[in-house]
Design a protein that fits this description.
- This protein is α+β, with helices and mostly antiparallel strands.
- It has 9 helices and 15 strands.
- The chain is 34% helix and 30% strand.
- The chain has a 7-stranded mixed beta barrel with strand order 7-8-9-10-11-12-14.
- The longest helix has 23 residues.
- The N and C termini lie far apart (65 Å).
- 37% of the residues are buried.
Length: 328
């Protein structure tokens, strides 16, 4: 009996087709490009049992089909991709309806899919992120790589500087997209850049506040307070250091998240719930461990990503203790 047929479309199609073929799945109704790249002998318009397409924001895909098959494919991808997040899974109410899931591909998952695609076609580093930003420039540069695949690293680095870091540094204003595991995007606000380090792919954003209290620090926000938010691409944490109007540190709040991604407009990551706090003059401590465990049990993230988040929190504790010892 034939395996269920899967139809794939969108910017992740080449990498996902390779992954699913290697997993023993059958691809139906492939695009012309996929038919040629994978030598697929299937009829155009052949019926499919499940469909994978880009989400509207193209930060991941939707998976739609019969319930068991949809669950199977989502779990297959969750275990393959290092930091994939299952943002939603809609179970059909009536018999015959499709199940539908939405998943996000953060930094590590995009990088993994870049590597998979590179086994099929010349592919620059950050290919899938660059396709979100400027697909025409990317395609133009990658077209020439078939004749000189050894230039992939150089071309990828040039595209990253031109399409991501330089526009971000020149704009001198960054927004922070703090994404919940359920897909809700929380904008932490825009702020001017206090620092931009291209060599280490690091930015520091200055943010100002109006009233309220600091989450985790148990302190009121006073007039003139501000934060320096440090984000380095690939780090599994974002550090917020809070200051009074006179520049006195009030404490540090470190968010643990999927590895940070930089874009020409700012920063994006998915929050993994667990955090580290250091109040003024006190030892740092971890908060919300139970929330991290809960999102794993609920199927938003894999156990492997849960362990990586816990390890990141332990590393942050060590870093903050060293900072305190140095008087920072």
């Amino acid at each position: 009996m034939d395996r269920p047929g899967i139809k794939i479309r969108g910017i992740y199609a080449t990498a996902l087709t390779r992954l699913l073929l290697e997993g023993g799945y059958r691809i139906t109704d492939p695009s012309d490009a996929a038919r040629e790249r994978f030598s697929l002998d299937t009829d155009e318009g052949e019926p499919h049992d499940l469909e994978v397409r880009d989400r509207p924001d193209r930060q991941g895909v939707t998976v739609a089909g019969e319930w068991e098959l949809t669950r199977e494919i989502v779990v297959f991808l969750l275990l393959k991709l290092p930091d994939m997040v299952v943002s939603s899974f809609e179970t059909p109410v009536n018999f015959g309806e499709q199940a539908k899931a939405a998943v996000e591909f953060p930094f590590g998952s995009k990088a993994y899919l870049d590597e998979v695609r590179s086994s099929v076609l010349p592919t620059v580093k950050n290919h899938h992120r660059l396709r979100l930003i400027d697909p025409r420039s990317l395609e133009k540069q990658e077209e020439n790589l078939s004749q000189r695949p050894g230039d992939c690293d150089r071309v990828g680095a040039e595209l990253y500087r031109a399409l991501v870091f330089q526009p971000l540094a020149l704009e001198n204003l960054a927004r922070i997209e703090h994404v919940r595991v359920d897909g809700k995007v929380i904008h932490l606000g825009e702020g001017p850049m206090a620092a931009a380090d291209a060599a280490h792919r690091r930015v520091v954003v200055r943010r100002f506040f109006r009233g309220g209290r600091y989450d985790g620090l148990d302190l009121p926000i006073e007039e003139g307070d501000y934060a320096l938010t440090e984000c380095r691409e690939g780090d599994m944490y974002v550090r917020h250091t809070y200051y009074s109007r006179k520049g006195r540190s009030k404490g540090v709040y470190v968010n643990i998240n999927t590895p940070v991604e930089l874009y020409p407009w700012g920063v994006r990551y998915v929050d993994l719930e667990i955090d580290v706090v250091r109040r003024g003059g006190q030892d740092p401590f971890v908060t919300d461990r139970e929330k991290l465990k809960r999102i794993t049990v609920q199927g938003f993230i894999s156990p492997a990503l849960e362990e990586r988040a816990s390890e990141a929190a332990r590393q942050v504790i060590d870093l903050l203790r060293k900072d305190a010892g140095a008087g920072l």
